[in-house]
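Re: [ENG-882] Designed sequences occasionally contain unexpected residues at chain ends

Forwarding the minimal case from QA. Structure tokens:
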């Protein structure tokens, strides 16, 4: 295996790694352009309550690059975290999401909650609070602000809970809520969870996917659900693809459900249609 000392102290072990670095640099360059040229779009994945009624959605970012094709948000969000572009990208996502929620309120599309992912660097950035406040003054009122849930992952626990709580509590004063995304996949301690001023826990797809096959994952999920009860947190399971998975979660007391079994993430227009159709079905019973 070839080993060479690259520039800036980067050690390149082989061609594959070099290609990977090259690809990331290309994404980085093109992402700047993409942000300015409307290549970044939002999708909305419906969330359902225990009666299988739509009660909310999660906002998910999409980048379809004319040159590179569809790139996973796992990839470009993490790259933008490293370069710092996540601040502009994140603000853009918040603004577009707020606009959609405002438009839906005017249309009478009534959701109980509306979740937006916030990355670690964005959360701790000095402008985060001001930017949320500015955009919320521009687009939202008290009723709509109450519906917004910011999803953060356990990786924010690289900082101490006190510092995190200060930020969260400032936004809670403005009626925003918080959810712990991908719970159980990172390194959060029980005491950290107890001290976090959050309202919701999201069960990661990686646990849901093996329901029915892996006893340990079932145990993980039932443990998370009872933990949520103890701390009085609402629960959402993501990545539900089968009826069996849904029923297991339902029987074990999960509050809300999200996954391809119900719906994929939808464009704004498709979400509106999906919402209306789900209501006409309800009415015709
Ligand atoms: P996440 O926040 O945990 O989002 C859930 C992911 O699971 C989404 O992937 C969603 O499309 C996918 N998913 C939901 N139900 C199913 C299912 O039944 N089957 C399968 N196979 N997948 C399902 P997506 O949209 O590719 O996003 C991946 C991750 O990228 C997100 O994980 C989140 O960490 C990040 N991300 C996405 N949008 C944003 C954003 O606007 N801002 C930030 N900071 N991160 C984002
Ligand atoms: Mg999420
Ligand atoms: Mg999640
Ligand atoms: Mg996840």
């Amino acid at each position: 295996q070839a080993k060479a000392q690259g520039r800036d102290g980067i050690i390149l072990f082989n061609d594959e790694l070099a290609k990977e670095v090259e690809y990331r640099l290309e994404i980085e360059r093109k992402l700047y352009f993409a942000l300015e040229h409307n290549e970044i779009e939002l999708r909305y994945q419906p969330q359902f309550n225990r009666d299988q009624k739509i009660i909310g959605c999660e906002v998910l970012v999409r980048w379809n690059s004319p040159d590179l094709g569809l790139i996973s948000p796992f990839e470009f969000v993490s790259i933008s975290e490293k370069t710092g572009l996540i601040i502009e990208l994140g603000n853009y996502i918040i603004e577009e999401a707020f606009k959609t929620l405002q438009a839906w309120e005017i249309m009478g599309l009534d959701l109980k909650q509306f979740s937006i992912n916030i990355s670690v660097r964005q959360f701790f950035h000095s402008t985060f609070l001001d930017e949320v406040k500015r955009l919320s003054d521009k687009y939202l009122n008290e009723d709509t602000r109450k519906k917004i849930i910011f999803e953060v992952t356990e990786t924010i626990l690289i900082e101490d809970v006190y510092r995190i709580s200060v930020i969260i509590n400032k936004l809670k004063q403005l009626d925003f809520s918080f959810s712990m995304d991908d719970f159980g996949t990172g390194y959060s301690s029980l005491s950290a969870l107890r001290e976090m001023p959050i309202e919701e826990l999201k069960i990661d797809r990686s646990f849901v996917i093996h329901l029915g096959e892996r006893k340990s994952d079932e145990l993980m999920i039932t443990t998370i659900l009872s933990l949520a009860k103890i701390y009085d947190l609402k629960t959402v399971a993501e990545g539900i693809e089968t009826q069996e998975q849904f029923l297991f979660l339902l029987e074990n007391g999960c509050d809300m459900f999200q996954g391809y079994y119900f719906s994929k993430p939808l464009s704004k227009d498709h979400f509106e249609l999906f919402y209306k159709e789900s209501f006409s079905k309800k009415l015709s019973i």
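QA comment: On inspection the terminal residues look reasonable. The two ends are 66 Å apart (CA to CA). Proposing we downgrade this to a documentation issue.
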